[in-house]
Every structure is written in structure tokens, then in C-alpha cells.
What does this fold into?
Amino acid sequence: MWKGLRENIPEKIMAFSSALLIWLYVNAERNPTVTQRYTVDVEVHHVQNGYEPPVVTPPQVTVVLTGVRSNVEQIAPRGIRAIVDASGSGEGKQRLPVQLNLTREVLRDVQVEIIPPTVQVTLTRRISKEMKIECLFVNTPPEGYVYLSPLIFPETALVSGPRDRVNQVRRLIVNAVPQRVGEEVDAELPIVALDGENRPISGGVSIRPSRARVVLKLAPVSLTKTVLVTPVWKGTPDPSVAIEEISIEPRTVVVSGKPEALARVHAVETEPIDIDNLTADVVRSVALRAVEGIQPTVSSVRVSVRVRRLPERSERPERSERPAP
It folds into this structure.
């Protein structure tokens, strides 16, 4: 038997080599070496509390898998995750390595390449600040009216977001636009953030609440006018005295009201001052008479009356008759 095996050794080696080559060829054809490329979103894990969602540059990486087809096809594309560990990273930009979630067993017979192997991660601390809300409106009320100061509910709002974006916010405003020019406003309006040049900041910050109620009322215009005070008397002083001087303080008063009401008023009268049977000087506080549509700045004036006593009348002596010559 052994003698038979030792015969034709070169031919047998050649036959074995040919069979091995045929097996390797067939196996390679059935399970060839392949390369697969997948684009995967980068996930950032372990970001500290108080930070905005990180900005990743580039946001995706290419994962290249090389190996025999059967091994490569065992890795499901949807199961590939590109992860960056941000543990201990602070505010600012840092370049961090990208890792895959695949186990060593899965990658044992597969060559892996990540392009690029590192990405830039920008972390920004999130801040908040409370700001007062301002109301902007076109101040063109109807003739004879004026807009009162707007009422805003609530008066403040909380601005939150990345530090650099929140620091750009200089004002919070609501635009009060009436349905028609010159009308009152009572509406829920959006709150808008403005920068130092009064340009809207459209993104990157959140405002809570996002809307505010604005009440903008109209009121009649109240003009002013200065008029004289006219005293009104009743009664007559005692025959033994005469009124020498009358003084009023103040002599003029300021009144306010609508333009049409003011146009009709040139003086304001006092309530009647009783001087009946007056025999001596007197000083009194006298109220002003009410005038419809007019409101004086004072309700009373001080009236002083000074009198002088008249000389007593004496009877004229009878003329004596001279005797006729």
C-alpha cells in the first residue's frame, strides 16, 4: 500500500494543487472580497447639562467596510452608528474621534475605515434672561383724541438659547397694528427679539411666552386755557360804608377741556358773594361756578373786600329870614 502511495508523487502533487486552486477559485467566486460604503449621521453622547445641542462639522461620516461578502453582509447598514463621546468637554470647539457601535466580534473579519476619523464638535452653554416687552405703534389717533400708554400682559418674557445668540438680543417688542388707522387695539401679538441695530433675530433663541396681549386705548384730548375770574355779588353794603377795593387771588385760572368747550369760555364766575349789610373789611374763600365740559385747576379763590366808612350826614341849618328894610 505504502509502495503504491510513493509512486507518481509529482503527478499526485500536481493534481492536489490543481484541485486546491479550483476550490479556492470557486470559493472566491461564491464569496468574494467586497467593499461597502455607508454614510452615517454623527451622534454626540454625554453632553453636560446646561448646553445647547452640539454643532458637528461635518455632521456625517463615511464608514468603509472591507471583507468577504458573507462577513460584510452580516452587518446591517441601519445598525451602524457613528458616536462621539463628549464627556468632560467644555464650551467651545474641540476635535473628537468618531467611534462605531459595532462589537469586536462583528468586526473580527472585517476591515473598517471611518472618513474622516475625527469631527469638530462645538458646544455652547445655554443661558436665559428676563426682558421687558415694549409696544411699538403708529401714533396717529383721530382728531381730538390721543393714545394712552399701552398695557402689555405679561410685561416681561424669558429669552433662552446659546450664550452668543441671547447676548445679541437688546429689545423685545410687539407691533400693535389696529385693523384700521386710528382704532383701538386689544389683541394677542407675537413677541419679536431685536438686536442692537433693531434687526429681528429670527433663529437660535426661544421666547417664553411667545405672545403678549396688548391693550391700546384712545382718550379725548384735554387742552388748557387761561381765563379771568369774575366775581359775582349779591346784596348791598351798609349805607355807612362804601366798597373801596376788591382783590381776587388768583386773578386768573387755568381750565382744561375739549377744544370746542374751551372756545366758548372766556371767564369763570365765582359763586355769589354775599355783601348784604357789609360794614367792615372781609376776606372769604369762594368756590368757582361749574362750567359743563370745563375743569379748572383750582376749585376756589380768595376774595378780599375793603371798605371805607362814609362821613355822617348833618342836617342843613334853616336860612334866617332878614327883616325887610
